[in-house]
Design goal:
The chain is of the alpha/beta class. The protein contains five helices and six strands, in the order βαββαβαβαβα. It is 34% helix and 27% strand. The protein is globular and about 45 Å long. Bound molecules: guanosine-5'-triphosphate and magnesium ion.
Length: 177
């Protein structure tokens, strides 16, 4: 496929929030209940058409464990055009961990001004609406309204909002081109 655009997207978030699962649902329409921790950085590719434009995506997942921080930072030196922040709706305390990556992107991505960031609250299929959690999310979104362009509740299991979130991120990137 002769691509019109090549974009790099980084996915970050705490351990087991569902980063690998979201990528596998989006790129292969597959989901597994098994958990295999991602070590360091794992890359996948996906070709798709958005708004009549052929897009080649390089999706880089940064493993959620605390090791290899320096190596993971290097992903931002390659100036990704998109950043997906992921947390688990059942563990909203993992939102805090995302501030670190917003900062790392700001400090290391020389095209930071063009980089589009979205937030995903994952495992929607298991989530029971809860006022305290919603308050925490709204507070986080308010604090980062400059950086975060869109927010979706997703389920890598059912696929709810997964394609929509990725495609909207690509649209945001295309608008900035
Ligand atoms: N019910 C449900 N389970 C999910 C969902 N997404 C992921 N899981 C499960 O959560 C566990 C962790 O998922 P992963 O995708 O490996 O998480 P990760 O964020 O890549 O984890 P690390 O690579 O360790 O950072 C697995 O057992 C998945 O099956 C979801 O939307 N719904
Ligand atoms: Mg993973």
């Amino acid at each position: 496929m002769n691509d019109d655009y090549s974009f790099k997207i980084a996915l970050v978030g705490g351990p087991a929030v569902g980063k690998s699962s979201l990528i596998s649902k989006f790129t292969k329409n597959e989901f597994s209940h098994g958990y295999k921790q991602t070590i360091n950085v794992n890359s996948s590719n996906k070709d798709l058409v958005v708004n009549g434009k052929k897009i080649n995506l390089l999706i880089q997942e940064l493993g959620g464990q605390h090791r290899f921080k320096q190596l993971k930072k290097n992903v931002f030196k390659n100036s990704p055009e998109g950043l997906i922040l992921v947390y688990d709706l059942e563990r909203p305390n993992l939102l805090n961990n995302l501030e670190y990556w917003i900062r790392v992107n700001k400090e290391n991505n020389k095209d930071y001004n063009k980089c589009q960031t979205i937030l995903l609250g994952n495992k929607l299929d298991k989530y029971v609406e809860d006022e305290e959690t919603d308050e925490l999310i709204n507070k986080f979104l308010k604090e980062h309204k400059e950086e975060i362009k869109a927010y979706y509740k997703t389920s890598a299991m059912t696929g709810e909002n997964v394609k929509k979130a990725f495609r909207n991120l690509i649209n945001l990137i295309l608008e900035k081109k």
